[in-house]
Amino acid sequence: MRPIRLGWMYPDIMDLYGDRGNIQVFEKRCEWRGIPLEVVKCSINDVVDFSTIDILFMGGGADREQGVMYQDLISRKEDIKKAMDDGMVCLLICGGYQLFGKYYEDADGKRLEGLGIFEYYTVADGRTRSIGNIAVECECDGETIQVVGFENHGGQTYEVSKPWGKVLFGHGNEKNGYEGYYDGKTLGTYMHGPLLPKNPKIADHFIKMALARQGITEELQEINDSLSDQAREYMLQRLLKK
Ligand code: GLN
Predict the structure, then answer these.
(1) Among the four 77, 97, 150, 224, which has the fewest Cβ within 10 Å?
(2) What residues have CB less than 8 Å from 147, skipping those under 6 apart?
(3) How high is the pLDDT of residue 157?
């Protein structure tokens, strides 16, 4: 088995509300199972061969931070697109999610071009802000699960053709009852918090997809997730008054 290669986009710029915890979860869950994993950091002007990356991760960032990195991201469009077409999977949080769409327009009307790989676009009107805990129901590995997180975004994301899940509590894409984007290979979501420690099934889903690229399709070794299960259940009960 060769190592899973996890590309971490702009770790020094795009990292809000514990987003880097998602990287730690990938590292730990692979280490506990004896699966080799390499983290490849990619920031502005770094040379990275995306054709060698299995999972691409990008966290969120405030408007200012997105303004700092978006041109570098766009300069990599062809490489990223080609790697995605060849099977690279992506986990994108908030600001990262937004910039894989057509554009992000801030409250002053300034537009940051996105990669345009997906057709959705994001506009911040300066009045609406989605802040707080969020709970979402989604499908994961053929199972309906409830996930919890934290959102904080001014941008509202429109025309998401394939929403990831249904909002049970909180706001999501544009307060229309749906959250995120998922097409079976790329997951874009507003869920910070960070996402994976609170919802480790999502991490395992990505690990499985990365291993499947190497033809490895056996079930992953079980990990005792009872603490994060309890924490998530507690939040679900609190938010949904279950
Ligand atoms: N700047 C973007 C917004 O406010 C993204 C914020 C984030 O990544 N949390 O919509």
Answers:
(1) 224
(2) 135, 136, 137, 138, 165, 191, 195, 198, 199, 202, 232
(3) 98
Q: Could you give the CA distance from residue 125 to residue 158 in angstroms, rounded to a whole number?
A: 13
Backbone torsion region of residue 46, taken as left when φ is above 0, otherwise alpha when ψ lies between -120 and 50, otherwise beta: beta
Residues of the chain with pLDDT under 70: none
143 CA → ligand 1 middle, Å: 29
Q: How far apart are CA 152 and CA 134, in angstroms?
A: 10
The pLDDT tens digits of the residues spanning 134-183 come to 999 999 999 999 999 999 999 999 999 999 999 999 999 998 999 999 99
What the block records as the tokens of 213 is 């690229």
> For residue 239, what pLDDT is reported?
97
**What is the model's pTM?**
0.98
Distance CA 178, CA 167 (A): 5
pLDDT of residue 35: 98
Query: Which amino acids are annotated catalytic?
Result: 94, 192
**If you compute the radius of gyration of the chain from its CA atoms, what whole number of angstroms results?**
17
61 lines ligand 1 (CB under 6 A): yes
The span from the CA of 106 to the CA of 157, in Å, is: 12
Q: Is 112 in the pocket of ligand 1 (CB under 6 A)?
A: no
Residue type at position 146? Q
Q: Whose CA is nearest to atom 5 of ligand 1?
A: 95
Backbone angles phi, psi at 23, to 5 degrees: -65, -45
Beta strands per DSSP E along the chain: 4-9, 37-42, 55-58, 89-93, 103-105, 111-113, 121-124, 130-140, 143-153, 155-158, 163-169, 178-182, 186-189
β-partners of residue 148 are: 135
